[in-house]
Amino acid sequence: MRTIVVRPTHASVEEAITRSSALLAAAHDERTVVISASVLEPGPTVVLGALQRAGRVLDLEEVGPAGVRVLRRPTTGTGFALDGGLLVSLALPSLDAVFSDVTPRTFLNRNVRPIMRGLDAAGLPCSYFGREWLAARGTSGARARALAVLGFELEPGGAALFEAYLTLRGSLEIPGEIASDLERSCERYRGRPTMSLEEADRSSPDVEHLLAAMAERIGFETRWVSGHVINTDARRTATPVTREHDPIDADAELFEPKPIPIGFMDRARVGRESWVGGDMLGPSFALGFAASWSDPALPMEGAVWGDVRRADDMTQHHLGMRPR
User: Fold this and answer.
1) 5-27: b (≥16 Cβ within 10 Å) or e
2) Is the CB of residue 26 less than 8 Å from the CB of residue 93?
3) How far is 73 from 151, CA to CA, in rounded Å?
4) Does an H or E element contain 119, and which?
5) Nearest in space to 120 (alpha carbons), one of 211, 204, 190, 4
6) Domains of the chain
């Protein structure tokens, strides 16, 4: 096994997300670990998880007047706000490629460790206490302050992608003026203010040093490459979001979101098919329209597969009936 380090670049949020998602195919095709980082161009942006229904998270009528772009990333998890910042990515050919003791319950706890080592080397020490965020070190327990929000994707072939998003300025929390009532009801980040790179006095972190520390923590032979070697044909892109139903069809019938530990699970009916998404981190191939066949042995954070099956069963039960 070896680690390919893709040299860092400055990029728009769209370009950085698209670049990050391409690492999945590289990890799968080369059977190697691939890491990268992008310094993000400034500008107020909200980034939604792959399976969050936009209208459940945002009041889209308020987004335009607020001057905020809304993008959807290919990784699952919760939405957050950025204004510049940093995206750090780790792609693995399998969940246990670096840590052999990984289980479906510990997949995040283990595999965010190289990312945390890199951030520590860049002067951004952090800890992982669970769920979808990294806490700035020295802010533990009830006083923990989020420094980075995590994204996750797993392909059917086993390749996995872990992402950490940090904002240059402002809060990672979606602004209240554009958040939906349900999103405002969530106590994101334990109700504490988040931390930006500016507040951490790391507006321009040494990203090459960050990647070198990640590679050292992974412990394999390392090769540095430029970004053009990544297979562009395999990229999933960051997509702009303008519809309340997005990412499902506009004629979908919506059901009441189900509360889960990380936030909410979204449910809908499209024709005669049930769709389940939401805030949890899990493999998108086993969610959405495939929730009826979800495998409890797959990794998930923020909910359990029993929650997914129950949400799918409830939606199936209402097929042919008016949604609640």
Assistant:
1) bbebeebbbbbbbbbbbbbbbbb
2) no
3) 9
4) helix 113-121
5) 211
6) 2-240 (3.30.930.10), 253-317 (no CATH)
Q: Tokens for 73, please give them.
A: 């990333």
CA dist., res. 257 & res. 278, Å (int): 8
121: its two tokens: 């080397």
Average per-residue pLDDT in the chain?
93
What's the CA gap between 11 and 143, in Å, rounded?
A: 33
Question: With contact defined as beta carbons under 8 Å apart, do 203 and 187 qualify?
Answer: no
* Predicted TM-score (pTM) of this structure: 0.95
φ, ψ at 221 (rounded to 5°): -55, 140
| Chain position carrying tokens 């195919």 | 25
DSSP 224-238: EE-GGGS-GGGPPPP
Residue type present at position 141:
G
Q: Do 52 and 79 form a contact (C-beta atoms < 8 A)?
A: yes
Q: Other C-beta atoms within 10 Å of 279: how many?
A: 29
Q: Are 85 and 163 in contact (CB under 8 A)?
A: no
Phi, psi angle pair for 185, to nearest 5°: -75, -15
Report how far residue 126's alpha carbon sits from residue 253's, in angstroms, rounded to the nearest whole number.
41
Find the Cα–Cα–Cα–Cα dihedral 10, 214, 166, 146, rounded to 10°. -170
The answer to whether the beta carbons of residues 301 and 280 sit under 8 Å apart is yes
**Each residue of 181-211: pLDDT tens digit?**
999 999 999 999 999 999 999 999 999 999 9
